[in-house]
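Subject: Sanity check before I submit

Could someone independently write out the structure tokens for this chain? I want to compare against mine line by line before I put it in a report. The sequence has 442 residues.
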Amino acid sequence: MAMLRTLSILLSLLLPAHSARSPDCGGILTPSGLRYRKCRPTSPLPAAGTGGSDTICSGGETSNAGPRISCHYRNQITSVKVDNFSLTLIPDTGMRLSIEVDLGVTSAPSATKEMRLSILADLHVEMNPDGNLELVTSDCKPTLEEVQSTEPHVHLSPLFLLFIPQICLEVSKLLLFPNERLMSLAAPFPITPSCQVQYLPLAAPMYSEQGIIISLQTTFQVSGTVIPLPISPVPFSMPEPARSSSSHVILAFSEHFYTSLFSALEESGALNVSLLSSLTTATLSERITQMGSLFQEDLPVVLQAVTRSSPHVVLEEDKAIVQLFLTAQIGAGSLFQSFLSVNVVSGSTLSLGSVCCEDIELSLAASDVGPILAALLEELFLPTIREEVTAQINVVLRQGVFLPHIASFTYTDVNITIHKVGNKTFKLLPAVLDLKEAWEQC
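---
Independent answer below. Compare away.
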């Protein structure tokens, strides 16, 4: 079960696709990820009296001690030990589930057998009539062989042997857990209270020596409405992972994905900020003489910055830059009377959960207090915009963005790298999985 839950980390992304858009991110579940399991070691489990038997009992004569029961032992499973449970990748085809179980079978009080039940099942992903992708079996072969017996002639009853073909039905039941999770993950993931993200596949995953590969398209919703995003000018395809990588999952996010993310934040208003400046109208009137005619009393200066066009993200080798285009309205008063409008172009380094402002350009857009030299504009307002506006945007970014995931999984040991492949740039997140609640689920 743990192996199937590991497989669900990628299959949780398999939701109906919108063919009108191209992929902008993707993931690879590597062979190491398929082999990953976090379970208690299996040990023999007593099964006597639990229904794993083929026993006929009849009532006899009644005595003072109670009714006399006569039982004829057929076959009873007295112990079960899962010796092997593995999931391997078959390139260009799918996966193979291998299960080996040691059974202790009793056909009489003194006659026992050790049997080996082997199950080989081929798995793949297909789309059902409802438009959801699900994990199914394409072939299943159970075999039962004798390992050891205490008596030379211990026979399994025909009734016991009839249960062997039913094993494949039980294998199909094992897939209910990941498939239920797939159906439950159609809801978008929140970014902000009004903005959500959803990852959708364009097709069923592909299988290669590198792992299970899926290309995803991202949709963003603001207040429940999907926002239109431009098609990426550069087609996306998953980059080849390093063969020496020990990561369980590799996620790749294109330059277009990050531009779309910031566009969604802009649409939701998450990048708009309002803050108090350290300046007042009195201190400004010392440098801008016409301020005195607008404000007769000393009032704190307020800065309101809103986006005026969509942000743009540029990924370079080992570096990510986000460009923000803002308009800062500078004013004062309880009803906010604006007296300056300043265009702001900010170039910031994008790191995990924050931006670091490196370059800011200010230009005067409108003024009610006469012309202002560019040098004076920067002297008065650049420090506040550089520090306070960036700090408030970082508050939003530190909330993070949900990666493609499934409940009970956690990414650990995440290593972020930015690679340029030809004219395509990817942000790679190799990660190791950690299963929560695995002890209880295995």
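---
OP: Matches mine. For the report I'm noting this point. The first strand starts at residue 25 and ends at 29.
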